Amino acid sequence: GSPRRLLLISNSTLHGVGYLGHCQQHIQSFLGQKVKRVLFIPYALHDRDAYALTAREKFESLGYGLDSIHESCDPVEAVRKSEAIFIGGGNTFRLLKALYDNCLIHEIRKRVLEDGIPYMGSSAGTNVATVSINTTNDMPIVYPPSLRALGLVPFNINPHYLDPDIKRTHMGETREERIRQYHEEPNTPPVLGLREGTMLLVEGDKATLQGVTGARLFLRGKKPTEHEPGTDFSFLLTDSNPLNP
C-alpha cells in the first residue's frame, strides 16, 4: 500500500471562524505528536511574508513550529528535509508556476508518495495535490508550463464548491455546468466538489470525507452524486488515469 497521508481542505477560512479554525482539530489529529515542524509553501499569494506570519501564528498555537519555504535559500533542500508540508490557498496558477519554477514537483511527490511525510493543502494547495488544476476556480493570472499538478491522488478536486442558487438572476454557468464541460473532454478524471467546511483525509489507499458539509462527486458520463461526511471515497484512489503523472 501507499504510505501517502494527505489532508485536503476545501478552504482555510470559514465564515465566522478564524484562519484554519474550523479544521484545527483535524490538523492536530492528522499531524499528531511526531511532527514538530511544518514546511509552509506560500507561493499562491503575492505577499509571502504576511502569509507566512499568519500561518506561523496558527501552527504555533497548535504546538507546531513552521518554516516558510520562501525564506529558504534552497527550496528543494527544504522539501527534502521537511517533516510535513502545508500548501496554502490563493491563486492556483501562481502557485503551480512557482512549484515548477523552483523544481519542486518531483521533490514533493517523492517526499509524500515514497517517504510518506504528511501533506496538507487548503484551497489552491488542495488543487495542486490532484491530477491537474483544470478544475480550479481561479483566473490564469500567470502561465505555468503545464496544468498538470502533483498527482498525489488520481482525480481532481473543485474546492469551494457552490450549489446553484435557485433564486439567482445571474445567467453565467453554475459550478456544476463548468465541471460538466470539463467532462465533455476525453480522458478526464473524476472531480470531487468540496463545499466549504469539508476536507478529504487520505491515508494510504483509504480516503474519507470529513468536516461539516457534504461533497458532490462528478464522474464523466454519469449524473453527479451527493455525499455526506464519513463517506468512504477509497475507490477514487484505485481508478487508473492516463493524465496522472
From TrEMBL:
The keyword Cell membrane does not apply. GO terms for molecular function: dipeptidase activity; serine-type peptidase activity. The keyword Acetylation does not apply. It catalyses: Dipeptidase E catalyzes the hydrolysis of dipeptides Asp-|-Xaa. It does not act on peptides with N-terminal Glu, Asn or Gln, nor does it cleave isoaspartyl peptides. It holds the Pfam family Peptidase_S51. Its main location: cytoplasm. Gene3D superfamilies: 3.40.50.880. It comes from the Eukaryota. Keywords: Cytoplasm, Dipeptidase, Hydrolase, Protease, Serine protease. Belongs to the peptidase S51 family. PANTHER family: ALPHA-ASPARTYL DIPEPTIDASE, PROTEASE S51 ALPHA-ASPARTYL DIPEPTIDASE. This is dipeptidase E. The gene is Aada.
